[in-house]
Amino acid sequence: MEKLILFSSDSHDLYIEDIFRAVCLPEGYVIHFRYEPGNIGERVLSNLRRFQDYPDCNGLVVFAVGNDSKLPEAERKILPIPVRNVRVLKIMKTPETGLIHFYLMLKDFSNLELVVEGQGKCIPPYNYVSLMNVNVRDKGETLWMNVVDDVRRSFKNQNFVSVKILSSTGDEIEPKYDSKTHESFYDLKSETSYLLDVAYYQCEPGRDVMAVKVGGPPLSIDSSDSERMGNVRDNRRFGLNIGEIGAKEITTFVKITPTLSKEIVVADSFEISLKLKLTRSYWKSLRFGLLSSILLAIPAMKVIKDDSLLGKFDWYVWPICGVLFVSTSLVIGELHRLFNKK
């Protein structure tokens, strides 16, 4: 079976962090890899449009361990570690930098292995994006902790997390993708509570403190500035509470630092940040409009029923009143949603 392989190696901290994000971010989140054209295999480079236009182009992110830039290319002993299946959403070449950008939606963790024999020139340091033959591993489903075990030796002083955002009832919230900025985000509603679900893997002894921070009001989290985890592997859930917002939409974040020592961030440790877009709930605004219209309708009905004030009230006026009631509810609700007008 042939598959599109996208490598990131241990030759630079930026590329190591790319793998860290591929391991830690939730399914459906979009990550960004960038390559020089000379680092892309000819079979891929000559058919970029094919991969971009194909509606469900699946690829595989692979960590290339041993790509020491201090050694001649021929002396580097590369160990390819399959990490995660991805879907290619966008391929874009930028004339300013000459780079080719791949925007990749994370899927499940990979149970594939590369067939390197006979394809040595398809892997780093020669090529970083290639079409390669792969086989399915015999051990079946690959879990998050299995991938952490595979890659952890290349991450000094670094613990790992797997993060999700859940509704208050425990249902997973799917991240969304902004095609203009090529970023993922969570669309969350104001005056609503959610859960931040974190799986934790301590890879560095003695560094068992994790920090969870948010971008400030109206967003708050039921957590102290730092959490001592204790176990090598653990699961935690934190309440994520959103108050009333003063605009139609605001942007904020949740940031997780999984590697701290005595509540101090370890040098060169990586972080995970989730972008949140907080919007007013349409249904809550509509409910506000309906209740406001009812309050306005009560005195109006008293006037209508008083024949001494308006005379006899003909039946055909009732549908007009109904239309006015619905229109008033919608207008008040939309004013509340857009401008917080009460």
Give a quick set of tags describing it:
Immunoglobulin-like; 18 strands; Archaeosine Trna-guanine Transglycosylase, Chain: A, domain 4; 7-stranded mixed sheet; alpha+beta; 342 residues; single chain; 24% helix
What's this model, at a glance?
By secondary structure, the chain is α+β, with helices and mostly antiparallel strands. 24% of the residues lie in helices and 38% in strands. It folds into 3 domains: 1-154, Archaeosine Trna-guanine Transglycosylase, Chain: A, domain 4 (Roll); 156-280, Sandwich (Immunoglobulin-like), CATH 2.60.40; 282-339, no CATH class.
Describe the structure.
The chain has three domains: 1-154, LON domain-like (Archaeosine Trna-guanine Transglycosylase, Chain: A, domain 4); 156-280, Immunoglobulin-like; 282-339, no CATH class. The protein has helices spanning 13-24, 42-45, 48-53, 144-151, 282-305, 307-310, 317-339, and strands at 2-9, 30-35, 57-65, 79-93, 100-109, 112-114, 129-136, 160-167, 176-178, 183-189, 192-201, 209-214, 219-221, 227-228, 233-242, 249-261, 264-265, 272-279. It is built from seven helices and 18 strands. The strands form three sheets. Strands 2-5-4-3-1-7-6 form a seven-stranded mixed beta sheet. Helices cover 24% and strands 38% of the residues. It is α+β, with helices and mostly antiparallel strands.
